[in-house]
Specification:
Layout (H helix, E strand, L loop, with lengths): L1 E8 L6 E8 L4 E8 L4 H15 L5 E5 L8 H9 L2 E5 L9 H15 L7 H16 L13 H13 L2
């Protein structure tokens, strides 16, 4: 199951909206996108990255909140076309998105708190560095037995292969 969420980052050009797709099994960010507007496109780009990276062979459950981005016709068409199943939080139930909220809390605490980037491009570069160079390959997760998401997945593959 993958989880989706949107957060925002301050820049001198205005807000940059970050959408992430997190694999609940390993807590790995498997897809993300950042744009200047909080539209369906920003979440579709993140989901497209996740589908491209994971290439799921079976139906995958995609969980989101009730934002308009997740109820659009484009969203529904993408979900159908890629054999995904959509799950949505109940109104006012923040616990359903706890993993994504935890990711955004870590991002803010460890990287962007009290910071205003000059440009959206500068923010994008910093988020890229955080997600791809730190969070996924290095940052230890309690849920993963104090392994990073990348290392946790690697060890699970080795166990499955009997090595």
């Amino acid at each position: 199951m993958w989880l989706r969420q949107i957060g925002y980052i301050r820049t001198l050009e205005g807000f940059a909206y970050l959408a992430v797709v997190i694999d609940l099994y390993s807590r790995r960010v498997v897809g993300w996108s950042m744009q200047s507007r909080q539209t369906t496109d920003v979440v579709l780009q993140a989901l497209h990255m996740a589908v491209w990276r994971r290439k799921p062979k079976q139906r995958v459950l995609i969980h989101s909140d009730q934002g308009s981005q997740f109820t659009s016709m484009d969203w529904a068409a993408f979900i159908r076309a890629h054999n995904l199943e959509h799950s949505m939080s109940r109104r006012g139930n923040c616990h359903d998105n706890a993993v994504a909220e935890s990711f955004f809390s870590s991002l803010k605490r460890e990287r962007i708190r009290h910071r205003t980037y000059k440009t959206r491009e500068e923010a994008w570069q910093d988020v890229f560095d955080y997600v791809e160079m730190f969070y996924n390959p290095v940052r230890k997760q309690v849920r993963n037995g104090m392994l990073s998401p990348v290392e946790f997945e690697r060890q699970q593959i080795l166990k499955a292969e009997g090595v």
